[in-house]
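User: Second chain of the day. Same drill as before.
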Amino acid sequence: MSCDESRRDLLAAFTLVAVGVCAALHIWKLPPALPSLQAQLGLDLVQSGFLLSIVQIGGMILGLPIGLAAERIGLRRCVLAGMAILTTASAAGTLFDTTGMIMLFRGIEGCGFLMVAMPVPSLIRRLVPPASLSRVMSLWSCYMPFGTVLILIAGAWALSVAGWQTLWLGLAGLTLAMLLLAWRLVPGDAPATAPHARSVAGGPSALQMVRLTLGSKGVWLVALTFGTYSAQWISVIGFLPTIYSAAGILGKVAGVLTGLVAGANIIGNLAAGQLLHRGFAPQRLIVFGFLTMIGCAFVTFGTTLPAGVQYAAVVTLSAVGGLIPATLFVQAIAVAPSAQTTTTTVGWLQQCSSLGQFVGPPVVAWVVNLTGGWQSTWLATGAFALAGIGLALALGSVRRRAAATV
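Assistant: Same format as last time:
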């Protein structure tokens, strides 16, 4: 491969990361708008939790099927189609102001997001040399916190001068621009990804790919671990604007405070890539991340320490917790039964992640309502973290046994 080709491939990989960030903006555009939507639509806390998590319905149901379809129709085509769906659904959502219709278009946006997020790890794997893969994948794993911090800060500003419909339309325009950029810079799908060429080449059938993916214990453990992490992170970050609003911290200030917490997650994601590159054991990084999240959630929600200490704790929760998703993305590629099942493996990981993100906010809201305050939040998130630790330990055992038989 020439230097020019290598640079083009690297630029394409960075473009894909930017596309992921743009897609993440749609997932996280709701939290800064949630206080005003609660007032406009008369939502209670549990209904607000479902409004936060409804966007995960597509991922919860369709993660593996979309991962499978992406391999058939072409990874690049799938990404571009997902961006088109996000553009259309975000613009169309501004035409309605009822809870049901907002939830419907949020669900459609979730499907579009999934079509973007599923194929990117496989595309990056094709574009980036193996020696650099862990570092680039750690950058990709930052797409969600990057998008989160951008929309929480910029969205809070936009909502201070305009309504939520303006924010939705602005993101539709941005997504259309990113779609055109990806169409221009990301290489086209290889002929082998077309259904006819694949059948001629004797590639695995859809059923075989599903069986290979779901028949792997390692795939299940990685995916379920990601689900326990996602349930915690979306619950904490998603409800922070509401918590700040209840405490009298409104608008741009709440957006900046929440954005800094979300942005801290990038530190852990990038650190994980470096640590894995230097040979740190994935299991230790995951367990350390979960233990830190338990301790910091307790300090943040379960104590009456000064507000500055509690804020430092929630920032640390996000930062150290960021070790987990980056490590799991790399592990997902490692445990995929074959190169051809990488996308379906990531699809199953996303499906379990979406399940966690769908379940997490309503569970936390239910516990808060049951106990009468946010101080019990750490009990719900801590339960998810303990489950994640158990899954991570089992994953480490499976990986060691697999390495011993090689």
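Residues 217-246 form the longest helix (30 residues).

User: Great, on to the next one.
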